[in-house]
Amino acid sequence: MTTRIHRIAAVAFTIAVTTSAFAQFGPEPDFTVTAEERGKVIENSIARLNERYVFPEVAKKMEEAVRAKASSGEYDKITSARELAETLTRDFREVSKDKHLGVRHHSGPVPDRDPDASPSAAEVEAQKAFATTVNYGFEKAERLRGNIGYIDIRGFMPPEIGAETGAAAMTFVANTDALIVDLRFNGGGEPAMVAFLTSYLFDEPTHLNDIWTRHTNATQEWWTSKTVSGRRFGGRKPVYVLTSKNTFSGGEEFANNLKVLKRATIIGETTGGGAHPVSEVKISEHFTIGVPDARAINPITKTNWEGTGVAPDVSIAAPQALDKAYLMALEQIVASTTDPRRKAGLQRVLDEKKQKTM
């Protein structure tokens, strides 16, 4: 596991707690900022974006826009830390359209640390403590009538702490005849866990995604694993992935990887559109900025989902996506089943489900 991915994981946890999946954590308390700190936050935000943002020309455009607002006095009356963070985030995103980019305020002092360094022992322990409160991102794993597996994943934790739970969930559904993976409330997370879980859906090592980082000019390839813990679902049985407009970042990667490889049918809404991994960088004693400094590159399409999202194969409102996927899975299993008694039983389940959804 590389330093780069440990760092992505740390930031992913920060972002994840703001999503509906992890709403148990409240916002940071507000506090008053001085004119000196306000100016420092603005200047250092601009500097870090110019140093690291994935598209240098866009960083320059963000600088020009924010400097113009600062020169006209638009920030002069801001004394709230929360308002300053939200205003700068809005102004930077207005130019970049990048939903990963964000200024954040912190009620406690921000420690000095290299944004490219691995998390400290204390940070790792904090990640583990947080992960246990959300069951490592796994909300539910069950077997639906008709022998259809269902897993609801709200976030992708680092495999170092989430692999055991992930392997247990995937092994639980390994004997089902079709699988529904629910990412409608998935705010993202660790690309290594995306690859870890996807490995259960393929029989052979498969190239999933690449991540290029600006300041290192290095590309990391992501592949499924040759071996897995527990049992594979396998590469032949049908898979359905549920998405919503709130599916973001790593959740989008999971869906996009399977869509491009034609391994799954995507059902639901077009996703949020965030394909840039991010570094959390200190810009003052109580502020940080999340700088998207890398981008995903699909090895087949050579593109990603930044700004566009992942479009579903079957477009339907997110609340109805599970029913739609379940019906499609039942229909496919009924069509492929040759045993007369089992086929009749599955048909009854399908007919009952159709009646309930009419």
Average pLDDT figure: 92
- Helix percent reads 40-55%
Helix and strand pattern: HHHHEHEEHEHEEEHEEEEEHH
| Net shape | elongated
Structural classification: alpha/beta
Tell me the total number of β-strands: 12
**Radius of gyration of CA atoms, rounded to a whole number:** 22 Å
Largest sheet: 6 strands, mixed
Question: How are the strands of the biggest sheet laid out side by side?
Answer: 2-3-4-7-8-12
Distance between the termini: 49 Å
Distinct helical segment count: 10
Unreliable segments of 5+ consecutive residues: 1-24
Work out the oligomeric state of the chains in this entry. single chain
Beta fraction of the residues?
15-25%
Summed up:
It is built from ten helices and twelve strands. It is elongated. It is an alpha/beta fold and 358 residues long.
Explain this structure.
- By secondary structure, this protein is of the alpha/beta class.
- The chain is built from ten helices and twelve strands.
- The strands form three sheets. Strands 2-3-4-7-8-12 form a six-stranded mixed beta sheet, sandwiched between helices. It has a three-stranded antiparallel beta sheet with strand order 1-10-9.
- The N and C termini lie far apart (49 Å).
